[in-house]
């Protein structure tokens, strides 16, 4: 008994040590980001440690990021694109997943693999074709041009999650809905989607985060400063001959706020949605 208890205690100690180490690995970058955002240029020139807090907090970094850095404009653009792309992408992905799990169509597995191929294609391979096509269609420097490609590239992941979750929904619900007089659209809209709320919330968080932080496509499609999103806009904080890192980190902290709000709203569904998708 004593040997067994000793083994259990040692396993717990190792487990918690690993957790503490991982927590430190995650917390240190966040702390350094906050500490850097609170420092002025003078603090950097004085050789203040990266992990040390300044004696006088440089609140000007945040005000300059919002006003001089036009961060509000970049955040507004990113919010417009995100709130256009994320709901539309989830809706289209849900329709495809419903067809793959509920409708009597041929080659369901083949269609699913076809959709998954989109996750295997590097985004970089599409940059030149997208640029050429968008130039001819005059879609460069437009919100539509940006969120349209976002929907296309995000569709595979959406179908992967929604299909997995819908496979775990009992078919008895379908039969009960048909008995009550529902057609296929009503089954999808009134039965399947409400049950799939955890998966939808999970996708909303992950898709919003991916869209908010996307840089590559936005840097190619958007060149107008008035239409730039947050990742592209923050890159303008980097100077050609030098960078004010306090100013830059302050902008990053402000830009994180909308993502944190979205996560706090949908967090209670997040774990359940991912668990349902993986389990299925």
What's a quick, concise take on this entry?
The chain has 280 residues and is mainly α.
Structure, explained:
The protein is mainly alpha-helical and 280 residues long. The chain folds into 2 domains: 2-45; 68-279, MetI-like (MetI-like fold). It is 76% helix and 0% strand. It has 13 helices and no strands. The protein has helices at residues 2-37, 41-45, 60-66, 71-102, 108-120, 127-137, 143-167, 172-179, 184-195, 197-213, 216-221, 230-234, 245-279. The two termini are 40 Å apart. The mean pLDDT is 87.
Kindly list the characteristics that best describe this protein:
280 residues, mainly alpha, MetI-like fold, globular
H/E topology pattern: HHHHHHHHHHHHH
* CATH architecture descriptor name of the largest domain: Orthogonal Bundle
- Per the principal axes of the C-alpha atoms, what is the gross shape? globular
The CATH homology group name of the largest domain: MetI-like
User: If you consult CATH, what is the topology of the largest domain?
Assistant: MetI-like fold
């Amino acid at each position: 008994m004593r040997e067994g208890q000793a083994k259990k205690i040692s396993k717990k100690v190792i487990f918690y040590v690993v957790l503490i180490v991982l927590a430190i690995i995650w917390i240190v970058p966040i702390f350094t980001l906050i500490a850097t955002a609170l420092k002025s240029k003078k603090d950097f020139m004085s050789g203040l440690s990266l992990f040390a807090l300044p004696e006088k907090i440089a609140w000007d970094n945040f005000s300059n990021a919002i006003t001089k850095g036009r961060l509000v404009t970049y955040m507004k653009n990113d919010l417009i694109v995100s709130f256009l792309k994320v709901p539309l992408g989830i809706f289209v992905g849900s329709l495809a997943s419903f067809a793959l799990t509920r409708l009597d169509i041929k080659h369901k597995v083949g269609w699913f693999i076809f959709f998954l191929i989109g996750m295997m294609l590097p985004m970089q391979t599409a940059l030149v074709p997208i640029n050429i096509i968008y130039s001819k269609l005059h879609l460069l420097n437009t919100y539509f041009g940006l969120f349209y490609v976002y929907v296309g590239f995000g569709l595979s992941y959406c179908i992967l999650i929604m299909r997995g979750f819908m496979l775990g929904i009992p078919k008895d619900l379908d039969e009960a809905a048909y008995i009550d007089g529902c057609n296929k659209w009503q089954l999808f809209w009134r039965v399947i989607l409400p049950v799939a709320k955890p998966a939808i919330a999970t996708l909303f968080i992950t898709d919003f985060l991916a869209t908010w932080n996307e840089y590559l496509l936005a840097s190619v499609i958007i060149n107008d400063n008035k239409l730039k999103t947050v990742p592209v806009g923050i890159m303008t904080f980097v100077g050609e001959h030098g960078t004010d890192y306090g100013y830059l980190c302050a902008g990053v902290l402000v830009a994180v706020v909308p993502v944190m709000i979205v996560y706090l709203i949908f967090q209670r569904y997040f774990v359940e949605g991912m668990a349902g998708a993986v389990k299925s």
